Amino acid sequence: MEINLLDRLPQVKRDPKARAAQKTEADRALAKQFGRDFFDGERRHGYGGYRYDGRWLPVARRIVEYYQLPPNARILDVGAAKGFLMYDFLQVLPGATVRGIDVSSYAKENAHGGMGSLIDIGSAEKLPYPDKSYDLVISINSIHNLPLERCKNALREMERVSRAHKYVTIDAWHTEEEHQKLLDWILTAETYMSVDDWVKLFADVGYSGDYWWFIP
Ligand SMILES: C[S@@+](CC[C@H](N)C(=O)[O-])C[C@H]1O[C@@H](n2cnc3c(N)ncnc32)[C@H](O)[C@@H]1O
Question: Max Cα separation, the chain?
Answer without folding.
Answer: 48
